[in-house]
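[audit] Reproducing an earlier prediction to check determinism. Same input, same settings, fresh worker. If the tokens differ from the archived copy the diff job will pick it up downstream; this log only records the rerun itself.
[audit] input (272 residues):
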Amino acid sequence: MMKKTILITGASSGIGKATAQLFNQKGWNVIATMRSPEKEEELTKLDTILVTKLDVLDVESINEAVSKGIKHFGKIDALLNNAGYGAYGPLEAFPRENIVNQFNTNVIGLLDLTRALIPHFRENKNGTIINISSIGGKMTFPLGSLYHGTKFAVEGISEALNYEMQQVGVRVKIIEPGMIATDFGGRSFDFQNDESLAEYQYIVGVLFKVWQSGELTPSPPSLVADAIFEATTDETSKLRYKAGADAEYLLDSRKKMKDEEFIKMIKEQYSL
């Protein structure tokens, strides 16, 4: 039987890298894409992994990576749209350029890459599209209007796309991780604040206090990789997969609570 192949974006660290390693261990071919493949040292040593350049903001690099992957392995069976980052802060403090970049990376880039691969999946009458959402695609936390806006979009795009993809034998899956121990707070993070906007400084301070309290216990990226592998291989029509104990708890709570109840709970947590 021919080995299956998955294309992964944002494979240089965190969830993307852990997923590339897991699929490699499970006997899959992996097209591990990233913006700076020349810096990658671990994945390049593994057999059946093609490390190549892909920037979701550059349509030409998307098309090149897809063509290169198909040429190298013959076929692509699954796509993991994982590349993304979080923009947080008062909306008033954000330059428009950063707003556009957040949506271009987390939403438009995902759509561009998905569109690039759909003809290949349709031709083969088979394939799986896995989109990384977040608990933040179903609920919101303070100062996350941009990030949550993109993840709510990913949820809607994925659920609607599922109907048409079923017509061509392709499954769509949504992964909803909770807090994960990745570089999300480092280079995968864009925090904007303007200290002259005095009205927002209390909420900014509270947010940092919660983030730095040590009370938040993130799950390892490998836990999300496991959920991705299950979603890719279970051959069911299940749409959503939670990843992490906090995701299970918060998503279930959000479902049961009225808006007012949930917002009150979050405000109490953040002392707002």
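[audit] rerun output stored. Observation attached for the diff report: The first strand starts at residue 5 and ends at 8.
[audit] end
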